[in-house]
Amino acid sequence: MSLNITYKQESGQDIGTLKSLQDRLSRKNIGDNVNDHYEANKDFFISVTDMYIVECFLEFFGMGDKYSMPTKHVPPTFNTNDEMKEWYFSTVEIIVKQHVFLQTITTGAKQQMLEVDGQCFRLVLENGKTITLMKKTISKSKKGDKISNYGNQILQLGLLFKDLIDMIHMPERVRGIRLLKLAMMYFKVYNNLSKYALEILRLLVHQLCTLSEKGSNEEFYSMFVNTGGKFDTHIPADRRMEYLVKEVKQHVKHMYSNKTEENISNRIYLNSRNFRKF
């Protein structure tokens, strides 16, 4: 979804777009078929997102490059670590409001009293009541900056994508629910009949409405498998099953005609590192 929104073949001449950066860096297999070249597309999109994040901070602090000194929003002198944390979070909040989640109003409506010869026009009804006629005016905002909007879109989608990947490696239910709510809105806006938005909605109903606290935790954490025994080595359970199926197919492929159930079991058990561990 992120690449379908931000990657356009005809935008190669526009500086800063994914297509122009792909041509400049001579990256291949980008944007054609994400499913066939997922890792290449993922690494490229994350790299571009990191580039926009760095540029966003350089602009906010008035820096020419990452080695220069800040000329705007210069950090004060901190006496304690708490003061440093407070300044850090408040500054990041300002950056996010200015460059990521912009609140723009496209149209606005105002009502003014209708005046005739400098006096408010009032209408007397047959029942004796008096009403004041109002004049409604609709104002439209100026045309937005397409370059700024594109950068804002890259930051929104890129940060959400990076946060989802980080959450998968280190699952945490509260954080996951918050990210899934935001992702569901993007999927719904991108495609009104998106199956991903419906699946996220189904999961959120389970997590927040129908299941108990124990059941919701069991359902959420059962979607991940820790393959390395560390706190940040989780992967999705469906991807783990894909790896196992691929590994079994590789073993079966080299057995040629000797494909009996017993031989397949022995082959997998003796040659698979994961099965030996199990």
Automatic annotation (TrEMBL):
Pfam families: DUF6589. Residues 5-277 form the DUF6589 domain. It comes from the Eukaryota. This is DUF6589 domain-containing protein.
